[in-house]
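Morning!

This is the sequence you dropped in the shared folder:
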Amino acid sequence: MTYYNPMPPSRSCADAWLDAALRLDTEGPIYGLSLHIANPAHHSETDHAIIGEVDSLLRSYKAFPIVTVANTIFPEDLWTPGDRDALYARYDRLYPKIKRAAPDWGRYFRRMTDWPKARGGSENQLETLIMNLRKFGPAAPEEKNRYHMYEMTLFHPVRDANKFRGRQCLSFIEIKPELDGDAVRLHMTALYRSHFYISKTLGNLIGLSRLLNFIARETGHQPGTLTIHSTYAELDPGDVNEKRGSTKWNKSGASDLVKRCETIRAEHASARAEPLAQAG
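The structure's back. Tokens below.
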């Protein structure tokens, strides 16, 4: 068994997810699975079809849909570009409802924006990251450039270390600015200690891409690439939750979903190629 398993670079979130899911379906759980996505914010017609197929399965088993999973990382509908304070305030008002809906899950954005300090009070890690990028990033005067200080931690050693269930899967996010001519591109790396590829991963990728776009827009920069390292990944069989009424899709259901998504991609590729063949 090897603990370093990088996938070839992918063009989009859905493409990266499907390539890795196909490998998981063949090999079983994988340690050290790494994805690199060139354009995480872009979704083609094929991507939308794959996302829809995964979302349909999740909803049919009453699991959290993709939009809910993505919103745990970045609640995009609450954001008015240029008004971060309104975003934070809207999320704070919704937080009690979020906590009641899922007591032990779904609060990554809260950890980004309300991290407890050792002596009381809290730190908005996300706002600090944005302000530091604006102050010290490559667009600033040369003597103030900093490439090593844009990170957020999601793992809490007191809250999470001894949890058997309900602990965070996303542990760390880091941003690297790159000066590309006159533009600055922001590249994101995220570390996951565990990844359920059916119920969570595609929503996670979309949520991270939205977070990256938000950070880029609010700093006046361009979104770059997204790199994900999962120290453990598997095609999960679903979960039984009596409160939500969710049931398992099991190993066969996960495998069938991946094969359907592979068929969707192949059919879309064939449809694009056919007019070219006719024209030739």
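Headline: The mean pLDDT is 92.

More detail when I'm at my desk.
O.
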